[in-house]
Amino acid sequence: MYQNRYSYLIKPLLVFTDLLIINAVLFIVYDKEFLNIYFSSYISIFWVIISLFSNYYKVYRFTKIYRILSLLALQLFLFILVYFSYFGIFREGDIVHNQFLILTSILFGLIVFKFLSFYGLKLYRKEGKNYRNVVIIGQDDTSDTVAKFLVNKVDLGYKYHGFFTDEPQSSEYYLGTLEDSFEYIIKNSIDEIYCTISTLNKDEVKDFTKFANTHSRVIKLIPNSNELYSKNLDAEYYNNTLVLNVKRLPLDIPENRAFKRTFDVFFALFIIIFIISWLAPILWLLIKLESKGPALFKQEREGLGGYQFTCYKFRSMKENMVSDHIHAKKNDNRVTGVGFFMRKTSLDELPQFFNVLHGDMSVVGPRPHMSSLSLEYQKDIENYMERHAVKPGITGLAQISGYRGEVKAKSDIKNRIRFDIFYIENWSFLLDIKIIIQTAFNIFKGEEKAY
Fold first, then answer.
1. CB–CB of 221/209 below 8 Å?
2. Contact 394, 364 (CB under 8 A)
3. Residue 148 — left, alpha, or beta (φ > 0 → left; ψ -120 to 50 → alpha)?
4. pLDDT: is 310 or 414 the higher one?
């Protein structure tokens, strides 16, 4: 498996280097009275034990930076406890020379190496090294999305060869029929096989699974996206009989709702006091100088449970009769100069923090749609109403995933709903923080669809 890629050596090498950093610091900042082979063995052994508990080395090609940060925080916190435990057990009451210098030096070295190794591997894979050969069996919209992702994210180290299907295709990535795939996988040293469940029957999936196991290939299944994100099931076994239990949504739990609401209030107050308080008068003046009309734009939107509320924004367009029915388009002549800047930087959304404070919205959640368009979406999308299970947000998972602004095709709104439902079914406070950080990053980076 993964011949000539040496991926199996990465984790042992990372462990070895971390232990080398720890012991190098002990050697360089040496305290002859205390730091010796016993302490070195103690701290090294416990570093490995802690890493097994925290999954510190379970970092994969798809791992995000937020996951790296959480792994670092847990691992180093436990390491600090273990470090000082030694002093408490064997040198109770003593302050050993250099113990704080040693600890901070070790932590600094470990943090630097963690990020260097993470981004170093990305750069290495971007150069075409340590890659994995991939093919997709079957073809539908979801598998096309996976293929596009594998092609575009070159730093993940995947070499996408193409797909096999019994329906002839004109695509440059079409490799042949299902029968052709077996020979191709062997001849081209394919490492991973992705099977599209919606286009394969049970026997075909079994055949590819058996083939992959026989030839030491990794096989992965691509389910239909609508099925994947519209279910929230938990597996239970009753005397070896599988029973699917419909789980409560995370925000159905009162404690989670209270925690999210508390965060919303404090975050909204922070933004209102430290940003809106001085920025709003400047934007108000610029808006009024450029065009006639109120500085604030009010619009009825759908919120929790489908109930309507008045959503506030800084006015970014000239007053017009269709603002409640038509999204802004690229080069839209309704958008003012100041409005273009505000939309590009999302400053027009700032008044919605007052919606958050009032309780109509949350900082993070599905974006509220215009009431006129909501009726249209309900007709086309089966699970559209599920997004009303939580309060709408100023930003959301769909928005940071590239689905914001104008809806050009039906697939745009379908993908938004897919991300919205995923967020609702998988909510966590860390996910909210990730979305907020990514939103801030996107504002400074600039987004193509922010117009």
1. no
2. yes
3. alpha
4. 310
- Name the pLDDT band for 239 (thresholds 50, 70, 90): very low
Q: Which amino acid is at 100?
A: F
* pLDDT score of 52: 87
Give, rounded to a whole angstrom, the gap between the first and last alpha carbons of the chain: 47
Nearest one of 386, 393, 384 to 413, comparing CA atoms: 384
Q: Is residue 70 pLDDT above 80, yes or no?
A: yes
Q: Is the pLDDT of residue 198 over 80?
A: yes
Mean pLDDT of the chain: 83
Closest CA to 39 of 18, 59, 52, 25: 25
The CB-side HSE value for 225 (13 A sphere, CA atoms) comes to 18
Lowest mean pLDDT among 4-13, 96-105, 192-201: 4-13
User: What are the Cα distances from residue 191, in Å, to 1, 60, 142, 173, 292?
Assistant: 7, 16, 21, 17, 62
Same domain membership, residue 366 and residue 272: yes
CB 118: neighbour CB atoms within 10 A? Answer: 14
Structure tokens at 218: 């990794």
Instruction: Please say whether the beta carbons of 394 and 363 come within 8 A.
Output: yes
Q: Which whole number is the average pLDDT over 185-191?
A: 91
Q: Say if 317 falls within a structural domain.
A: yes
Q: What value does the mean pLDDT take over residues 236-243?
A: 49
CA-based angle 24:26:30, to the nearest 5? 120
* % of the chain residues with pLDDT over 90: 31
Tokens linked to 299: 């619009």
Domain span including residue 284? 252-445
CA-wise closest residue to 439 among 388, 402, 384: 402
Domain end among 126, 149, 179: 126
* Dihedral pair phi/psi, residue 426, rounded to 5°: -125, 25
d(CA 314, CA 347): 8
Query: How far apart (Å, rounded) are the C-alpha atoms in residues 336 and 340?
Result: 6
Which residue type sits at 181? S
Q: What pTM, to 2 d.p., does this model score?
A: 0.54
Is the domain of 257 the same as that of 327?
yes
% pLDDT > 70, the chain: 83
3-state secondary structure 51-75: HHHHCCCCCCCCCCHHHHHHHHHHH
Residues 308, 313, 319, 321, Cα dihedral to 10°: -20
